[in-house]
Structure prediction request, 433 residues.
Amino acid sequence: MLAHPATRKESHTQWFDHSRMGLFVHFGLYSVAGRHEWVMTREKQTIADYERYAEFFDPDLFDAKDIAHRAKKAGMSYAVLTTKHHDGFCLFDTQQTDYNSTKWQGRDFVAEWCEALREAGLKVGLYHSLLDWHHEDFTIDFHHPGRDDPNARELNKTKDMSRYRAYLHEQVRELLTQYGKIDYLFFDFSYPWEMNNWMGKGKEDWGSEELEKMCRSLQPEIIINDRLDIPSDLVTPEQYQPSGPMMIDNAPVRWEACQTLNGSWGYDRDNRDFKSFDMIVQMLVDTVSKNGNLLLNIGPDGRGAITDHDAHILDELAEWMKLHQHSIIGAGASQYTAPQHTIYTQRNDRLYVHVLSWPFGHLHLPDLAGKVRFARLLCDGSEIAMEVLDPEKQALTTEVGGQPAGTLTLNLPVQPPHTPLPVIELFLEENVR
Prediction:
């Protein structure tokens, strides 16, 4: 049996495995509504109701170069833009439909995106929805806005998924032939099960095997995610954090956690359920400690501007990464077990201790005695004193007692560094890497 593609170490995935963090950008007509990217189906809008947003979509403040600059500054190595979401409106110059930004706004946002990312030295990622609630041949199912139409099943008899499938493939061909090298293609998504007496859609509906084959023929070094309903280069847990390194058939797989800032991917004006920056940076470290990447999403508003909150989060991330990126980029899981209230990542001979709750005086690290040649705060490079306490030593009124054999004790300052998540860098001895 062939190994799952996501378990393989491939030359075309090396940059992805090293990068550990990317930016996701959800942007489209739903940004004008400002009520979540699924507003069309949540409110069961007709195509005519929803199409009116195209007239009022005026993203004069969308600046791909500014987004790319912010992503680069935040320590991200790649970024992914929605070329078309489930609503069917395209942000690129497609010959398959007039329902696109070139016709309505006179702008090819994908062209702007690719140019800006390459100029910033970022890998180019594109998102493309497999769904299309606007296309006349896309059959109604349990996600479709028209699912409660009393004539829905009759309407499906006039629809032909083979015509839609050809449309889908041709649009992907356009994306992979009109914009130079594309490093990462994020398809979204498959749902091949029955719900509410409707059947969902999967690999047969999309022609997934043929579609992926075409992609790799046009762009041999492209990375493709797992949402075509067939195994591919990585798996994509969304809106949750795996409890450990992800595995398939007992083998570790390449994976990417897709996370929002407030539970919505597209601009959602009244949704204030924001994750704190502390939570976000801990999520990043947790992901890397389990050999994953974090794809962090922002949703520009109806004029294309990055919201004040999203900009603030990216600025905070840039400040933290400026001092601590060595514990993230190129790092991964460690063989050592982190003590309570800490998270380990490791990069070659460097072990990074991310201290979630700053202890008073001492931090005891199991199984590291005799294995560390130097310890320092990563933020300023200042040394941290180390000692190995005799396990037989009795705790006295003013002296720390012994620790289990093999424990390395760090002597910490009372005040933690002025950073949301302090990191201690340990230089390991050569024979224990």
